[in-house]
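Re: [ENG-882] Designed sequences occasionally contain unexpected residues at chain ends

Forwarding the minimal case from QA. Structure tokens:
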């Protein structure tokens, strides 16, 4: 269920990117502190890529990402990167170590591949919610009503509606 949920969220993002011209994709948005839809998309993609690249070594540090400018300025390139992420998700679960420096101290935390996939899904949804805020200025873009809404929130709303 995890991989299909990730693919669904990433497909929603692709559907959105197909509607946005590069000029709007890379345009600063005041409601996002002048960040761009492209920057948020790049961030989502690179988090998944970071997990993929470091799967074999078993040591993941999300702060060490390439921050590829082309991903945040070219929707076609971003879509291709998303498709590559989707094609690389299916892996065995295994132990991983997360590394991060916080306030000058290095943290090392035990995790596993499936836990990190779940983290990346939730992180993706969070950034989709931010992207949705940026899209409020564009009337012509068709956004899925569930875009940027956590799966648990969708489930809760469905239960309340019954």
């Amino acid at each position: 269920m995890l991989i299909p949920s990730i693919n669904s969220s990433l497909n929603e993002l692709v559907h959105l990117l197909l509607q946005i011209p590069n000029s709007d994709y890379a345009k600063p948005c005041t409601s996002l502190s002048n960040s761009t839809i492209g920057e948020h998309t790049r961030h989502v993609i690179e988090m998944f890529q970071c997990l993929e690249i470091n799967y074999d070594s078993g040591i993941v540090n999300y702060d060490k990402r390439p921050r590829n400018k082309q991903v945040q300025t070219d929707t076609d390139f971003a879509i291709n990167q998303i498709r590559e992420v989707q094609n690389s998700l299916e892996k065995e679960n295994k132990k991983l170590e997360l590394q991060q420096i916080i306030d000058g101290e290095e943290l090392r935390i035990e995790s596993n591949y499936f836990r990190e996939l779940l983290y990346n899904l939730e992180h993706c949804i969070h950034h989709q919610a931010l992207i949705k805020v940026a899209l409020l200025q564009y009337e012509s873009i068709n956004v899925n009503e569930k875009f940027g809404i956590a799966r648990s929130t969708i489930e809760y709303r469905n239960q309340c509606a019954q």
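QA comment: On inspection the terminal residues look reasonable. The chain has a mean pLDDT of 94. Proposing we downgrade this to a documentation issue.
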